C-alpha cells in the first residue's frame, strides 16, 4: 500500500460495495434504508432502477461506498435493457465487496444468471436473503438457506428485511469486515456522488412509476431542463419523455389531474431532500423509439458506460 492510501487511523477502512441481483428483489430499498435517506428510487414494478447510484455510508472508521445497480436481465431485446445490463455488470469492476440480493424463498433462472456473472469475481460475495418478513413457513427457511450455501462459497449469508430494517446492522458489519484498510475517499457527511439534477429527475420518474404501475411501460424518461436557485426557492423544470401519444395522455390524466398528483408528490420529496421550497414545472413530450435507440439513450446520458 502506498503512502497516499495508507490511513493514519489503522482501523480506517474504505471501499466499494456493489449491490446486485435480478430485478425487483429490493436492492434500492436496501440502499435507502442503509443510508437512512431516500436516494435510489423504488417501486413494486421491477426494473425501476436504470443507473448505477452511489450511496456513501460512513460509520466511525468505516466508509462503505455502495453502488445500487439496475436488475440484471436475462434478455436484452431493447437498447434500454442492454444499457441496464451494462450498468449492472460494469459496477462489478474493481469493487471490494459484493452484496448479492435474492428474494426470500424464491430462486429463479435470473438468479442463476447473476450468480454466473459473480463466478468470475475474486472479492467476497455476501448473500443477502431479503424480504424474510414475508416468509410464512419458517421451518422451510433453513433448508432453503442450506441450498443457497451450496451455490458458491459466500463470505456470509444474511437473512434480512430491508423494508423493516431487520438485520441491516449485521449486514453493514459484515461489509465493514471485508473492506480494505484505506483512507476515506469522501467527506464523512457526503451520502452520494450524484448531482442534485439527477436526484430530481429520479424522484419525478419514481412518482410516475408508482402512480401508473402496469398502465405504463418502461419507456419513460425524465430530463431536467432547469435547475436554478432564486433566494430560498429552487426552480425545477422537468421534461417527461414517452414513446407514444397514448402514453402522454395517460400521464396527464383526466383534465391534468394525474400530472398534478405526480407533481405534488415529487415536490414533497424534493423539498425534504433539498431542504428548500420547490417550484416544480412538468411537461410531457412524445419521442418515438427512444428506448430502442442507442443514440437517444446517449442524448439522455444513459450511454456513458
Automatic annotation (TrEMBL):
Keyword Nucleotide-binding assigned: yes
Task: Give positions of region: G5.
Answer: 160-162
UniProt keyword annotation of Magnesium present: no
Cell location: Cytoplasm; Cell membrane
A GO molecular function term, named singly, is: ribosomal small subunit binding
Domain Era-type G: residue ranges: 13-181
Q: Which intervals of the chain are annotated as region G3?
A: 68-71
Superkingdom of origin: Bacteria
Purpose:
An essential GTPase that binds both GDP and GTP, with rapid nucleotide exchange. Plays a role in 16S rRNA processing and 30S ribosomal subunit biogenesis and possibly also in cell cycle regulation and energy metabolism.
- NCBIfam families listed in its UniProt record: era, PRK00089.1, small_GTP
Q: What is this protein called?
A: GTPase Era
The source organism is Marinobacter salinexigens
Top-level taxonomy: Bacteria, Pseudomonadati, Pseudomonadota, Gammaproteobacteria, Pseudomonadales
Amino acid at each position: 500500500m502506498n503512502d497516499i492510501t495508507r490511513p493514519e487511523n489503522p482501523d480506517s477502512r474504505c471501499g466499494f460495495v456493489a449491490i446486485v441481483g435480478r430485478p425487483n428483489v429490493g436492492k434500492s430499498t436496501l440502499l435507502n434504508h442503509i443510508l437512512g435517506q431516500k436516494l435510489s428510487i423504488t417501486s413494486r414494478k421491477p426494473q425501476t432502477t436504470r443507473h448505477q447510484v452511489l450511496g456513501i455510508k460512513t460509520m466511525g472508521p468505516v466508509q462503505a461506498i455502495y453502488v445500487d445497480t439496475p436488475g440484471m436481465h436475462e434478455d436484452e431485446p431493447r437498447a434500454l435493457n442492454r444499457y441496464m445490463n451494462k450498468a449492472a455488470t460494469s459496477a462489478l469492476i474493481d469493487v471490494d465487496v459484493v452484496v448479492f440480493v435474492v428474494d426470500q424463498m424464491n430462486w429463479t433462472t435470473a438468479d442463476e444468471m447473476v450468480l454466473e456473472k459473480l463466478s468470475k469475481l475474486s472479492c467476497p460475495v455476501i448473500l443477502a436473503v431479503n424480504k424474510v418478513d414475508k416468509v410464512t413457513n419458517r421451518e422451510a427457511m433453513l433448508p432453503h438457506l442450506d441450498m443457497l450455501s451450496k451455490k458458491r462459497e459466500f463470505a456470509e449469508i444474511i437473512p434480512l428485511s430491508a423494508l423493516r430494517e431487520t438485520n441491516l446492522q449485521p449486514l453493514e458489519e459484515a461489509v465493514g469486515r471485508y473492506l480494505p484498510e484505506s483512507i476515506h475517499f469522501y467527506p464523512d457527511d457526503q451520502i452520494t456522488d450524484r448531482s442534485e439534477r439527477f436526484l430530481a429527475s429520479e424522484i419525478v420518474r419514481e412518482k410516475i412509476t408508482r402512480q401508473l404501475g402496469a398502465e405504463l411501460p418502461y419507456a419513460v424518461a425524465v430530463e431536467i431542463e432547469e435547475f436554478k436557485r432564486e433566494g430560498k426557492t429552487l426552480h425545477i423544470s422537468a421534461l417527461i419523455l414517452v414513446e407514444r401519444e397514448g402514453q402522454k395522455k395517460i400521464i396527464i390524466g383526466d383534465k391534468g389531474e394525474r400530472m398534478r398528483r405526480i407533481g405534488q408528490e415529487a415536490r414533497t420529496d424534493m423539498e425534504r431532500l433539498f431542504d428548500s421550497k420547490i417550484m416544480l414545472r412538468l411537461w410531457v413530450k412524445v419521442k418515438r423509439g427512444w428506448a430502442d435507440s442507442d443514440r437517444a439513450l446517449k442524448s439522455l446520458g444513459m450511454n456513458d458506460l
